[in-house]
Amino acid sequence: MALPLALGDKASFENYWVGHNSEAVMAIKSCIMKGEPRMLYLYGSRGCGKSHLLFAAMRFAEQEILASSYISFDDSAALPALLNAVDVEHLVCVDNIHLWAGDEEREQALFALFEQVKLNAGQLIVTASQPADRCGFMLADLISRLNSGLIYPLQPLTEEQRYEAIKLRANCRGLSINDDTIKYLLSRASRDNSELFRILDEIDRVSLIEKRRITIPFLQRVLASDRIQRSR
Fold it and tell me: Which residue of 10, 27, 54, 198 has the fewest CB atoms within a 10 Å radius of its CB?
């Protein structure tokens, strides 16, 4: 079962600024190309790129002619029974597993998914906010399974790396933004990288509609409008 997901431009390794996470990226690519390691556990704070890496992994798998499935536990439609429909013979990406910690039924379903992926020689990549033994899981066997693969803490970007990341993302989208405008954006936007990239998406959308160059005055107007819309 290929779960619905709009990959878009966010789903590639090409527009992911690696920073100090090169080992995690290499491990993901090895998992897809070589089938080893079978299980990867990525954890880190909000906005450090966990979901981006899962989306990028799926696009990379598509290029390698490998089927993949994705589910995020922050989706209200993500119920334990849904895991029974996942294609466990190929790549399975599960986002935000920490959100199911403390719920016995959900923990059992996640444990069963792990076992099925292992039994059918699939690959499993999961993300969480913290290491498995600090997420609040009650099922000891589940914690043991989650700790059995390769574990990578994802490092947040430094200020300099955030600048390079936004520049890379803009270039990948074909946006012409000069250095001063990027610095202005960084000084006004949230330090949450996912929020920063969301704003860049909005800037791209508005500039295409209005056919305007991205200048600081243009950016000021878009940011003000975005704040008003999100406050409603």
Answer: 198
Q: How far apart are the first and last CA of the chain?
A: 37
Q: Where are the beta strands (DSSP E) in 17-122?
A: 39-43, 68-72, 91-95
- Report d(CA 176, CA 25) in Å as an integer: 28
| pLDDT tens-digit map of 66-122 | 999 999 999 888 899 999 989 999 999 999 999 999 999 999 999 999 999 999 999
88 and 29 within one domain: yes
At which of 93, 124, 153 does a domain end? 153
Based on the domain organization, do 145 and 163 belong to the same domain?
Answer: no
Rounded Cα distance, 92 and 126, in Å: 8
Q: Are 185 and 159 in contact (CB under 8 A)?
A: no
Q: Give the chain's domain count.
A: 2
Residues of the chain with pLDDT under 70: 1-11, 191, 228-232
